[in-house]
Amino acid sequence: MAANMIQFHIKGKRYEGSSDWVLGEVSFDIAAGRSLSIIGPSGVGKSTLLRIAAGLDESFEGTVERSEKFSMVFQEPTLLPWRRVIKNLTLLHPAVSDKEALSMLERVGLLAKANDWPLQLSVGQQRRLSLARAFLGNPDLLILDEPFVSLDEVTHDNMVQLTQELLADSGAAVLLVTHDRREALQLTQRVCELRGSPATLHEVD
Description:
This protein is of the alpha/beta class. It is built from six helices and ten strands.
């Protein structure tokens, strides 16, 4: 796959039983250390595109190749409520020591919460834990599906700043889907818009 962390080249996507195409022809590559945001209105197909990019949806026409070492942050934190905060990190990354996990929790401001249960955390803290879990694996590619949606303005801005800091240290390639153009410009080097029906990708000036 050379220096590209993801090569996304699809001819189209439609759901089983439907004659309507959700996505038309969509192509992009993201090289190591580079980043791309895809913006667009709700319902246009952004999350569908991201599910294809992450390998969660294999029913499409075309090809997608990605690094095997990737992490994904969903709209919801997708934590294990029956495992303590630190175990939500080490269970997914068994090669990571408790010391390394605690260091990451300190990095995201959750060191004091290491032995709490996820449901004891605020929504913002749960999102921080989800970010910590994604970055702890040192991914080549980070896929973000509107990870800051529904947060208040202050928490949102703090999360964007934290993500910027973590990205600066990780060097991971980034694919971000968001409806927030300002967020896209803050976090990525390139911004494209998904629009139309079927939806296709367009560069944003």
